[in-house]
Design brief:
The protein is α/β, with parallel strands linked by helices. The protein contains 7 helices and 10 strands.
Amino acid sequence: MRVICAQDYDAMSRQAANLISAQVLLKPDCVLGLATGDSPIGAYGQLIRWHRQGDLDFARVKTVNLDEYVGLGVTDPQSYAYFMRKTFFDYININLCNTHIPNGLAPDAGLECNRYDEVIQALGGVDLQLLGLGANGHIGFNEPGTSFVKGTHCVELSQTTIETNARFFTTAELMPRRAFTVGIFDIMQARRVVMIVSGRHKARAVRDSFWGPITPRVPASILQLHRNFTLVADQAALSLVPGEGAIS
C-alpha cells in the first residue's frame, strides 16, 4: 500500500487527478472505475480543466461506475447517472455509449446484477478504480457485514449511510433504502485502485481500514491485500494514523 498525504481537499484532489490522468495518457482506451459523492468532485474538476487545456483526451476511455440507487432513473437529479453527467461527463469528450452505470429502474435486481458483472468482464476489467471511503468503512455501497460479497449485488443501505446521504434529498423519506453496487471481487480485480479521503470525520474509518485487521465489518480493509493500492488522503483524514512512519 502506498499512502500520499496531502495538505487539504484541494491538494488531495490534484494528486488523485494526477494518477487518473497518467492512466489515461499511458493507455488512451483504458477502463476507469468511477465513484460518486463529495470526495471525487475536486478530482473531476481538475480533469475537466486539463481536458479543456488540451492535455487530456477521453475519446477512447470507457468507464464503469460503482453504484446506483434502486428506484432512480437516469433523469432523476439524485441519481448517480445524473451526477456523473452534470459533474464530469458533460464537460469532457467521452462517448456516453462508453459509460456504464447500473440501471436503478431495472425490474429484476438479480438480472441487472448479472448484466453489470458481464459488462465489466466484457470490457476486460478495470484499469484504475477510483474509490471514496464511507464513515463506516464501506466502499461503493459494500456495507459492513459478516462476509465480503463478490459480485454486483443489491444492498440494503445501512442507517449510517442513509443518514449521511439523506442531506442530498429534499426530505429524509425520499432517500432510497437500497442500491446496486459493484462487489468486492470486481474492485479487487482492478489493476490499480486509488482511494481519496478527506476530513477529520473520516479519520477513524481510515485508521480502522488500513491500520487494523482485515474484516468484512470494515469492508475497505480488504484493500490491504490489493497488489497496487494507493491511498490519497489529507492531513485531517490521516490524523489518527499511528505514527508518521506509516506514511510513505
